[in-house]
Specification:
Elements (H helix, E strand, L loop, with lengths): L1 E5 L4 H16 L1 H4 L3 E5 L4 H4 L9 E4 L2 E5 L6 H15 L1
Parallel strand pairs: 1-2
Antiparallel strand pairs: 1-3, 3-4
Helix pairs in contact: 1-4
């Protein structure tokens, strides 16, 4: 299971969700990967236990697989989410 920290209203988080939905529809191996989406502001104590600055950030256990960069476009976010899903397969 991957843990994804996000914030409501974050455009990069919206792109990450869209990318995951597309990737899981396109690839049956990705469809089996479970993601636990955790809203950072409502789970601040839990989020503080992880090492990241930007959302979305994706973790496999405590290993960070992806942290957003404010300069990313949709295709970059999708490629990064693909790598995270591949690591979880």
């Amino acid at each position: 299971m991957l843990t994804v920290f996000y914030m409501n209203g974050c455009p990069y988080c919206s792109m990450a969700r869209k990318a995951v939905d597309e990737l899981q529809r396109e690839n049956s191996a990705f469809a089996g990967v479970q993601l636990k989406w955790i809203e950072e502001r409502t789970n601040a104590a839990l989020a503080a236990q992880y090492d990241y600055y930007y959302v979305p950030s994706v973790f496999d256990g405590t290993k960070k697989l992806y942290e957003a960069d404010p300069s990313q476009d949709y295709e970059s976010v999708k490629a990064s989410m693909r790598q995270a899903l591949e690591a979880a397969c």
